[in-house]
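JOB MANIFEST
job_type = single_chain_structure
chain_count = 1
residues = 235
[input]
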Amino acid sequence: MRASVPGQPAPGKGGAEDVVPIGAGGARARRADRREAIRTRILKSAREIFFRDGFSEASLDEIASRAEMGKGTLYRHYESKAELYVAVLAENGTAFEERMRDAVRGEHAAIDRVREVGLFYRRYWLDHPEHFGIFWAVHSQAFIGELSRPMLEEVTRIWERPLRVLENILKQGMEQGELRPCDAWVMANVIWRAGNSAVECLVTPRRARVVECSPEAIFRDTLELILAGLQPQPS
C-alpha cells in the first residue's frame, strides 16, 4: 500500500474537494500579503504607543486607531496587549541580536571584542532610543504579570540570546588566557547591567542632569572600568 504524502490526499480518497481551483494559490498569497501588511501596521503603531506611554498606560484602542483599523481586527491578530508587546519585543530583539553579531564578527582579541560590544551597544541605542524603552519594560511587574508561560519563555529567549553572544566571547578569552578567570555567564550579566545603566544616561540625558555629569563620560569610563576588570591579574 502506497503511503500518503503530508499535504496531499491519501491514495483512493481524492475527490472534487481535493482539487485546488485555478487561481486559488494566488488568492491565498494575496490574503497572506494582506495579513502581513495588517500586522506590520499594528506593530508600527504599537511600537510608537508603547514607546510614548509604556506598557501599562498604552491603549489598544489608540493603537488600533493609529493603525487605521477596528479593535476587532487588532484582536484577530493579537489576543492581548501582552502578546502584542512580546511581538514588538521579538521584532526589536531579533534586529538587535543580528547587528550585535555583525559588530563582533572577526578574529580579534577577546578584550577588543568586548569593547566592540560596548561601542555597538552605545551606537544602537542612540540610533534607536525607542527600542531601549521597549526592551527594558520587561522589568515591569505589570507586564510580566500578564504573560502566559509560553510568552514568558519567549521573552526569556529574546533576553538571553545577546547575553549568550557576550558569554561566548568571555569564554573564548579565558580559554586563550586573554581574560581573567571568572564565571562567564555571571560576568556577561554584570557587564550587561552596567552597560544598560551607562546607556540610560545617554538615551535619557535629562535624568543624568539631576547630578551634573557628562553622560558620554559616564559611558566611556564605565566601559573602561569593565575592560580593566577583565584583564588577567599579574602573577
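[summary]
The chain is about 70% helix and 0% strand.
The two ends are 74 Å apart (CA to CA).
exit_status = 0
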